[in-house]
# Entry
Amino acid sequence: MRKEVEKILSQYTCDFGFCEYEKVSDYLIKCANIRKIPENAKTVITVIFPYCLEENKYENLNVSRYAAVPDYHTVANAYLEKIVLKLSEKFENEKFVFFADNSPINEVFTACVSGLGKLGRNGLLINEKYGSWVFIGEIVTTLDLNVKSGEIVRCENCNKCVEACPVNALSKENFDKDICLSHVSQKKGDIPEEYQQLMKKYGCAWGCDICQKVCPHNKNVMKTSIEEFIQGFQSHIEEDCEIEGRAFAWRGEKVIKRNLKIINDKTEL
Ligand code: B12
# Structure
């Protein structure tokens, strides 16, 4: 049965792995989608979507790399939907439900125990081929593939990401999401001056890549072959840009416009 599932998955441009649902079910993230998980779920099929492009593409970047490609929710969900259609045809009596990001599944940890990579000190999945420049999605199914989950393997803890984080969000053992620059840049309302200064300094109007850029595992990684990411890449976001279809659209245009104003402001803070 596993071979048949693998055959279907390998028709798409994605790498994948498996784990027992039971292994991750104790760590579900509370969100509305939790009710979509099928009763009697047995297996999680975890899929990664690499998004790194050639380095020279990032020269004029004014958002983090994940936001420079078309909205990954749409791209990942389209792939996952196609896979689920094929799987449902093949295994008529089983249920298959897919998620990407907006998911009750802790995707980083699930990808780790699905054999897709190490857990980085920055809290991100580090894949051997693509580094941490991957999005994660998954299919939760009642199909019992009799898989054996792996254990979580942590990175070497070289500390580069911890030292590079300008707000010390990684200094304590547990990641402090409330002070993370990526988190603050995505919030509504006023941005503290200290954070405005950092956004200007790094020229980044959405998200933050600092802890990933310094990671040794992200050097010379394989580039994405996902056409949607290659074709729809937009490195420089203008204040009057169309936000539809971009990763920051969910927040509404006010937030990205506020941020672009901050980083485009030429006066000293
Ligand atoms: C909320 C969120 C954020 C928040 C908070 C992040 C956080 N770490 O809490 C903010 C806005 C800061 C953020 C930022 C970013 N994010 Co984000 N984020 C998420 C999201 C939607 C949920 C994460 C979450 O709330 N987890 C719950 C908390 C409590 O988990 P936790 O801290 O890990 O603690 C749990 C584990 O330790 C667990 N545990 C312990 N042992 C074990 C063992 C097992 C087997 C399991 C399963 C669990 C487990 O127990 C704890 C309690 O549950 C995920 C998607 C998802 N559904 O997972 C994407 C996700 C993690 N983000 C992603 C990305 C790309 C980013 C950014 C890189 C974007 C950017 N460039 O700015 C940054 C990176 C910042 C960083 N260093 O983390 C990707 C990561 C891809 C990768 N390679 O790992 C994800 C997976 C989205 C996706 N579908 O691709 N993010």
Observations:
- The chain has eleven helices and six strands.
- The longest helix spans residues 72-90.
- The pocket of cobalamin is lined by residues 23-24, 27, 29, 64, 66, 100-101, 103, 105-110, 113, 122-125, 132, 134-136, 152, 175, 177, 180, 182-183, 186, 207-209, 211 (CB under 6 Å).
- The mean pLDDT is 96.
